[in-house]
Amino acid sequence: MGLRTAAHRGILLALLFCLSALSARAADKKESLRISSGDLLHVSVFREPDLEQHVRVRDSGEIDLDLVGAVSVVGLVPGEAALKIAQAYEQGKYLNHPQVSVLIEEYATQQVSVLGQVAHPGAVPLMTSRSLLDVLSLAGGLTDVADRHITIERGDKSGSLTVFVPNDASTDLKNTVMVHPGDTVLVPKAGVVYVLGDVGRPGGYVMQDDAKLTVLQAIALAAGANRSAKENAARLLRKVQGRYQEQTIPLKDMERGSQPDMELEAGDVLYIPFSMARNVVVGASGILSSTSSAAIYAAR
To answer: Which of 74, 118, 190, 202: disulfide with 147, CB 3.0–4.6 Å?
Structure first.
């Protein structure tokens, strides 16, 4: 009877261990914050209080544990580290089917660098993972000329990702795109298209949202061409291989729909001449020089 009871107990412990491992793997799929050098870990073993330890991850990526010695954990999520430590105790024949728990008590890097087009660029304190929108809010939010294609460089060197943040950021984005301590958030400057000449509101217009803007959209942002404008002589200046090239565009045909609307690129200058009665011939150099003093407008 004693042998049968011991066998049953062994089977039960094995089942519990398997369930624990499966549960840890399932949790790992949701876990994204990985262990880094310098982190302080709390390692505990079920029913083994003498093996409870608070250990710092060395620069080599290892922690020193009683009995088993050095175990490499850097780059792992806590659940993966727990399984690896359990295997070390089991393979060393110190414990049978140990149930290990690993918690990150303290992060070595407790800030995120937010650089570029935010109100307050610099280091943002971060004790745990936060959503991208929360981190941008902590940095004072995006400026009017911010490009909404934002790059997150992971502090654990696992790579980077670029995230598009629309004006009407959805709940899904807030819940799924996370920034971790040690990461760097880069917010580039958006492209600007200039609409100058005989329009209602000449100036530079930020290519926000999907960073796309067409000729007709740009003119609409500039409050449209004035009645005195010479639309059939509209000119586009575009930089190609470091030099501006000039071309006439069929603006009237675009407005009628007989010619397709043309997509603009960052740095393009669209010039709508005045009518013959008021027209003063303006060369490309004169048009380009006026961009330096042009007001910059951004949708809000």
So the answer is: 190
Give the best-scoring range by mean pLDDT among 79-88, 158-167, 239-248, 279-288: 79-88
For domain 111-187, give the CATH number.
3.10.560.10
pLDDT computed for residue 26 by the predictor: 47
pTM for the complete prediction?
0.61
Predicted confidence (pLDDT) per residue in 119-159, tens digit:
999 999 887 788 999 999 999 999 988 988 999 999 877 88
The reply to whether 2-106 and 111-187 are identical in fold is no
For 213-225, give one letter per residue: b (16+ CB within 10 A) or e: bebebbbebbeeb
Which residues, 6 or more positions from 11, have their beta carbon under 8 angstroms from its beta carbon?
none
Q: Which CATH superfamily is domain 2-106 in?
A: wza like domain (3.30.1950.10)
Domain 192-297, CATH class in plain words: alpha beta
SS3 (DSSP) at 75: coil
Q: Where are the domains of the chain?
A: 2-106, 111-187, 192-297
